[in-house]
Design goal:
By secondary structure, the protein is mainly beta. Helix content is about 10%, strand content about 65%. A hairpin with a 2-residue loop joins strand 9 and strand 10.
Length: about 280
């Protein structure tokens, strides 16, 4: 009986010692890794770039209206009136500078300023009319030398590198308008000319798509509508041999239109992709 108790005690002691030894052995389970860092804010920072595209006017019409002074023949004023449509379309190109801020992972807000030169062609239109002995010719031209904007941008990242955005803000540009009238009747010659050239300020709105194709380079396609308001000029029609003006004339047009352009930007990112986390054992 004693021998049996001794054997049982020895067996229990051996099992207890084996369990304690096993508990002291290093665990073969892999350590828990820290959670992955949030995606880097690839779009946050300043950028500069170039753009080029095409612009066309939404309102080509130049309205020329004239009215004769009493007691002169009203035909002078009628002949000096008309609606002309000079083509103010053209190529556009320039540069931009801006700042983006990426937040909530998938949203980007920013501010952009740009300025472009406009190369137009065939921006003059003419008309001719005869009213009995009176022959009248009217011509008008309109153009924009440059167009710039200062806009806010708000967009959504469809993928980490593809941004779709809307934009809007202030637009400004050098607007030019001129008109002239040339009339002849009975050996008398009547002329009138007026011109406007100044910087106009208005508004713009549009949208675009921008693709970050390299860590610091992006390409974009953008559409903008701009409106610089209405411009008017005035003058009088004077005939040789007549000491006083025969008629008053005014020319009016609106400077608004569309821009479609492509561009490329270089980004001075404030944040860059974080280094990968390497676990050490």
């Amino acid at each position: 009986m004693k021998k049996s108790l001794l054997a049982a005690s020895a067996l229990a002691l051996a099992v207890s010692a084996g369990s304690a030894f096993a508990a002291d052995l290093p665990s073969k389970k892999a350590p828990l890794l820290p959670p992955p860092p949030p995606p880097p804010a690839l779009w946050t920072g300043f950028y500069v770039g170039l753009n080029a595209g095409y612009t066309w006017s939404d309102s080509n019409a130049v309205t020329v209206g004239s009215g004769s002074f009493a007691p002169f023949n009203p035909i002078v004023g009628i002949a000096g009136s008309g609606v002309l449509a000079p083509n103010s379309d053209g190529f556009i190109g320039g540069g931009q500078i801006g700042y983006n801020y990426q937040f909530a992972n998938s949203f980007v807000a920013g501010l952009e300023a740009d300025i472009q030169g406009v190369a137009g062609s065939n921006n003059t239109a003419s008309s001719f009319a005869a009213f009995g002995p009176l022959a009248s010719s009217i011509s008008a031209s309109k153009s924009i030398d440059y167009l710039g904007t200062v806009r806010g941008r708000v967009g959504y990242l469809i993928t980490p590198s593809l941004l779709v955005y809307g934009t809007g803000g202030l637009a400004y540009g050098q607007a030019n308008l001129s008109s002239s009238i040339f009339q002849t009747v009975g050996g008398l010659v009547g002329t009138s000319s007026s011109a406007f050239s100044d910087t106009r300020v208005g508004w713009t709105a549009g949208g675009g798509v921008e693709w970050l194709f390299l860590p610091k380079w992006s390409a974009k396609v953008e559409y903008l509508y701009y409106d610089l308001g209405t411009v008017s000029t005035s003058s009088v029609i004077s005939f040789t041999g007549i000491p006083v003006p025969v008629a008053a004339t005014a020319s009016t047009t609106r400077f608004n239109g569309h821009v479609v352009r492509a561009g490329v930007n270089y980004h001075f990112n404030l944040f860059s992709p974080a280094a990968p986390v390497v676990a050490k054992y």
